[in-house]
Amino acid sequence: MTTMRPSLDRAADLRTEPGILDRLRAVPTTTVIAVRQGRVRVAGAESDEASLLRVEPSEIRDATWALLARDAQGAAILLAALAPEADTVDTTPDETWLGLRDLGGRLAGGETELLIEALALAGWLRDAPFCPACGGGTEVRQAGWSRHCLVCGKEHFPRTDPAVIVAVESPDGERLLLGANANWGGRMYSCFAGFTEAGESLESTVHRELEEEAGVRLASLDYVSSQPWPFPRSLMLGFRAVAVDVDEVRADGEEIIDVRWFTRAEIASALAGEGPVGLPGAASIARALIVAWLEDRE
Q1: Hey, do 12-127 and 161-296 end up sharing a CATH topology, with the first three levels equal?
Q2: Is 90 exceeded by the pLDDT of residue 106?
């Protein structure tokens, strides 16, 4: 397994500096990523080389602000979390508002990391204005990375909820088990996923989710990699597993409406968009796990 260093400088050392957001908004080199309803402005949306559109702070009329990062030249990148009805500068033909799923894998790695950070933090700033302990109003602090309750004084931070996602292969390694979620109407098949419950290890989560959703017992389990996912604010932890028995699989009939073993030829065809089923988009760790399994034997 390869351990990757983070490519994004989150400028955490600046967060506690008094008045840092106001100061950075006045710096000429500072740029802003605006987020509205889980979408960002993107330049080159119709091309294979889309990029996040950054604007000057003066172009944003009303927003909740946060510090996202520093770019390679040391300039600050801010977040402007906009209300759903917010009015900002008009788009031009090569700019539009898109979400993570719309963009797929068309952003460069560093920009994808920045996009996910912006979407997750904007969602928290929008959804958590009140103290969960007493219901009091809160004040944004630490450059957008905490909320201080003005009533009881408690400090609150953005949550990240762990979830597992698992690619399950047959004992001989020649078939991959995928499931169709009820929300997809049977149009797409993917790896199995679920949130870790209170007091539960990741390994226990994997075994529980596979037994609940697909009736599968696992003979072995290996961690692969993780992916932050801002829907709502999750950390997807990817695993590879080997099933004990290919014949014991069954869909739970509620969340998962169908489970199927796919051959390598079928997976290769589906990845090429030629059927027999749809697979997850390029932005997801689910697709990365499927591709990794296919390429293991090629």
Answers
A1: yes
A2: no
What is the distance between the alpha carbons of residues 67 and 32, in angstroms, rounded to a whole number? 9
User: Which of 84, 35, 31 has the alpha carbon at shortest distance from 59?
Assistant: 31
pTM of the predicted structure, to 2 decimals = 0.85
Number of neighbours of residue 152 by Cβ within 10 angstroms:
11
Phi-psi region of 102 (alpha: psi -120 to 50; beta: other; left: phi over 0): alpha
Integer Cα distance of 278 and 287 in angstroms: 11
CB atoms within 10 A of CB 194: 17
Q: What is the mean pLDDT of residues 68-76?
A: 96
Homologous superfamily assigned to 161-296: Nucleoside Triphosphate Pyrophosphohydrolase (3.90.79.10)
Q: In the CATH scheme, what is the code of domain 12-127?
A: 3.90.79
Where do the structural domains in the chain lie, given as residue ranges? Answer: 12-127, 129-158, 161-296
